[in-house]
Model the fold of this input.
Amino acid sequence: MTEAVITRSPRTPTEAIFMVDIEAGASFVHEIKRGQFVRIVDIEGNQAVDTLFYNAHDYADRYSAQDTIRAQGNIYLTTGTKLISTARNVLLTIVADTCGRHDTLGGACSAESNMVRYAIEKRSMHACRQSFLKGAIQWSDKTGRDFGKRDLTANINFFMNVPVTTSGKLTFEDGVSNAGKYVELQAETDTLIVISNCPQLNNPCNAYNPTPVRLLIWDAATNESMDQK
Amino acid sequence: MSSEVLWEETLSGSSTWSHVLKRGTALRITAGGDHANVGAIFLNADNPSERLNLPDTLKAQHIARLTTGAVLFSDMGRILCSITDDTLGWHDPLGGCSDATLVAEKYGALTYQKAHNDWHQNALDGFLLELEKYGLNRRDLMMNVNFFSKVEVQEDGSMQFVEGHAKDGSTVELRAEMNTLVILNTCQHPMDSDREYRQTPVTLTLKRVPAPGSEDICRKFRPENERGFLLTERYFQ
Done:
């Protein structure tokens, strides 16, 4: 594996306007305003943070894995990656990354895919798409907006390592993340973020130990003050 | 494998087509020239909220290319179609589809008045128009497959479109394991570095085929596929 490029953020937690810890197995839905920064911190290490992004004004315009990787000519996401939507808008840009690369091809686990991948009797185990659906239903109830299973599409797995080989194999490797690593994105448009903090207990990449993650948000003005320093 | 041809038609280049491929039938696609590309999406025709999930398809089978033996998994752990035969060994699940801006930038604008049916179409608009005919829309768009195309990924993650992969007469055969709404289009691959706008037709052959047996090549491809077939069979019981 090539050496990951590490880019630190100038923003400090004390200046954040919002901070929340998301437990393993929990979902989280929140709107990020254009210009704001959102940081996801892998608190204990090697946790997969399954994340969906939508244009907040039009949920049918959402993160597209294929358009994103094609636009940047690389399947791994890191600092500088622009997250492209299905309508070819830039939703967010990754502005800092102390992990170095993130997966966008591995998708999110589900009760159904766990049956296929591991064993039929795994259906009852909690999985990311259960969390996505729970978050979507709650958000729809709260806002009155139509938002459900049809909207669950390609996701990013922050901190996850899913290499592709030149012979066309897809492999799952041990995580490349460690405790305290983070990724930070700036919203280029008002963006809805839907997170499932992965509860996967069948996969050794998290040592069978799902752990919490932290999410912080800064206002756009924080960046301006940093630029002036 | 014994089979009975039901009908055959030619789909011209740069156009879109759809059909509900019934369980027990198969669609054979034959390239009508070099440079062929067939972008495709798949939904359960009886309940279109169930649709192709490419990440599940790739990770269940540990593949980043599609070939004989591989199956196309839905987001519900079932199999929409199986790839029972192909002559290329590699069909692309990564490159996505072209859009109007990409086509105009790459090949220039060509209007209908000037070019009639040779005007410059794109895959995204084709998918959206065809989805609309089934009461579906942008919310139902998904990651697409590109049959006949090859995108290689290097160790550093960089992606390269492989020139000259598809040849005239290349084939791929898809067996429907559900009643599967298939939407195809023949627009060029979005990463095709060829600067000429090509319109390569394909021949579509629909056949009636026997149900997959216990030693079926797709069933045996991976233990995951065996479980996918089991879940699909339960759905029809």
Remarks:
- The mean pLDDT of chain A is 93.
- Residues 18-228 of chain A form one domain.
- The helical segments of chain A are 65-72, 111-117, 128-143, 220-228.
